[in-house]
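hey can u check if this looks right to u? its 298 residues, i copy pasted from the old doc so theres a chance i mangled smth
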Amino acid sequence: MSWLRAAGRRLRRAGVFLRRDKKAAAGSVILLLLLIVAIFPSWFTPDDPAAEIYTPGIGLSWAHPLGTTSFGQDVFSQVIAGTRQSVFIALIVGLLSTILSVVIGVSAAYLGGWIDDVLSMFTDVVLVIPTFPLIIVITAYLKNASFWLMVMVLVFTGWSYGARQLRVQALSLRNRDYLLAARARGESALYVIFVELLPPMTSLIVANFLGAALYAVLAASGLQFVGLGNINAQSWGTMLYWAQNNEALATGLPLWALAPGIAIAVLGSALALLNYAFDEVANPALRPVSRRKVRALS
């Protein structure tokens, strides 16, 4: 079970990296806190987020830390409840997009020939299509997209860039000595891909996952803000939709609009910090130069 030992070593190295890299550590802590809120929102929600039982338009108070909406709903409860859908969309879209990117990109590079030509052409076609207009057209046609329908649309439009990156990386590794030795030993293609080819690409795969998750957060929030998602679902994007439709800023209820916007920015920042950190692992040229090296060069 050498591959299990190798996986364990990589997990330990990842843990050390997350503790030592400040960007990775900060992003991990923020993402972990948001994930806990998303899994157990009832622990942090003082009220039913959909209940219209309070005085409309209340400002900051101990009972309502972020005030109430013009419908009499508690804004803080809505922000907490909206964490679940926003975080889950990011993670699910990021995971499915990454799997699709790995399957298409690595298969194209490893198998080569006409399979590479077909998969590369398909990737290029999806890559050059203007993404956000395509998402708007699809969701507008389908009307009030459900959670899983939105996930599928975002996955379809979000995998191509990662597939292109992974294909290039796999092409650079395909003819390395250890891969040629594995093929010479008669190892199967699946063994070569999963045991020999993918482990050196782990940091790039993780970076692609984080990039796809960040894209999903912003795209889903944008769709819900313009009313193309399920406007009755609890999410940060739908909060922005109702705040904009009821002129929250003009009627003296800025926190109704600012709170979900800040929450989206916090989640996006956590994913971006982790993405930058793993980019530095994948690309040594991006790593910061230590002060000692700078003094030696000066």
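The chain has one domain: 23-56+64-297.
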